[in-house]
Amino acid sequence: MGTVYEDPFIKIATMIGGAEYHKVARSLLKSIDATDEEIASSTGLRINMVRKILYDLFGKSLISGVRVKDEKKGWFVYRWRSRREEVEGFIENQKKKIISRLEHRLNYESGSEFYHCGNADCPRTTFEDALETMFKCPMCSKILETKSNDRVKKALTLKIDEIKGDMQLTF
């Protein structure tokens, strides 16, 4: 069995929520402007599960919903469609959030001095916390020594550079 090409919209939906999201995304691509009831019927998922997924995808701007009056029933229903053109923007946005978190962590690592007792079960501690315990480990009472975090800083920098290099900057 060869690799099956999967639409980016379906890939993203699956990454967000797994198998149920995958089913809903495929259903949205198969029938444009489907109602939540039609999607539930085509996927075999419970209607409240389908609605939860639709609202989540809608909140992430990956689908759009149009409110229309159901002529047979006389009440309003939403007709949903994928916004495949938003997938790239969604991915870029997620990458920006990840970079921001990694840069925040890198700033913390760069602006702090850490101490450790050498015991693998004990956490490292900041200078301020080490000072409070008179440079004794709060867990095992061994003397705290300075602990280099160069490897952590290098790993964070590499990851930030990798994601930035991967991003399609649209400036």
Describe the protein:
With 171 residues, the chain is α+β, with helices and mostly antiparallel strands. It folds into two domains: 75 residues, Arc Repressor Mutant, subunit A; 79 residues, no CATH class. The chain is 53% helix and 14% strand. It is built from seven helices and six strands. The strands form two sheets. A three-stranded antiparallel beta sheet has the order 1-3-2. A three-stranded antiparallel beta sheet has the order 5-4-6. Helix 2 packs across helix 3, helix 3 crosses helix 4 and helix 5 runs antiparallel to helix 7. It is elongated. The model has no long low-confidence stretch (mean pLDDT 90).
Summarize the structure.
With 171 residues, the chain is α+β, with helices and mostly antiparallel strands. It has helices at 8-17, 19-30, 36-43, 47-59, 87-110, 127-132, 150-166; strands spanning 34-35, 63-69, 76-82, 114-116, 125-126, 145-147.
